[in-house]
Design brief:
Elements: E1 6-12, E2 17-24, H1 29-40, E3 47-50, H2 55-63, E4 66-69, H3 71-88, H4 93-109, H5 115-126, H6 134-144, H7 148-151, H8 153-156, H9 165-174, H10 177-180, H11 186-199
Parallel strand pairs: 3-4
Antiparallel strand pairs: 1-2
Length: about 200
């Protein structure tokens, strides 16, 4: 039986390079907080941009950081939910088109770096609540509204990355195909990370 492992990477948005990595069997608040504290001890950090894992919100609060939830991960999750809904739905084509259009409006809320414009677009979208399709309302209630503050931090401080794509793009560009095969075992994965962090120049 293969035990699931998580590769947790801490990426510095200013130097555009990973500064720490750790393989975890569980991503608890304590472990994530410890990793960040150990690496950034004595350094000034402003914010934490993360995927949708709920533990990161608590980590940011405990460390006194602004928390930016990755907008790309949010929209990816929303598109997946809409796609699954449309596949099963018996709605007519006009209704399906409107669902896609309103999903685009959610995306557009976070496509501006201007705080006032972001708030205006969000308020305008919420003003259509009486006509919004049920799947769009569900996404707003469960995904967007509860996390709105952490989704818009980049509009308040434009130095805060709005997505975690920078880190992911780094690995997709540097990880070779022959290296991926080594990820199938604990030993291969740990060996690769050790070599990577020791040999790559920051």
């Amino acid at each position: 039986m293969v035990t699931k492992r998580y590769r947790v990477s801490l990426h510095d948005a200013f130097i555009k390079y990973p500064i720490a990595e750790e393989i975890m069997f569980s991503r608890t608040t304590r472990k994530l907080k410890s990793l960040i504290e150990d690496v950034t001890d004595g350094q000034s950090i402003i914010s934490l941009t993360s995927d949708g894992l709920k533990q990161y919100k608590k980590v940011a609060e405990d460390l006194g950081l602004k928390h930016q939830r990755c907008v790309f991960h949010l929209m990816k999750d929303c598109r997946t939910k809409v796609y699954k809904y449309l596949k099963k739905s018996k709605d007519d084509s006009v209704t399906k088109m409107s669902i896609v259009r309103y999903l685009t409006e959610i995306n557009n809320v976070f496509r501006t770096y201007d705080e006032c414009e972001c708030l205006r677009r969000f308020k305008e979208l919420l003003g259509k609540s009486e006509v919004l399709p049920s799947i769009i309302m569900k996404i707003l209630r469960n995904k967007v509204i509860p996390n709105f503050e952490s989704l818009r931090q980049f509009t308040i401080d434009n130095f805060i990355p709005r997505t975690s794509n920078q880190a992911e793009q780094h690995y997709s560009a540097t990880r070779k195909s022959e290296t991926r095969r080594r990820f199938k075992t604990n030993e291969g994965l740990l060996e690769y990370l050790a070599l990577f962090m020791s040999n790559e120049a920051i």
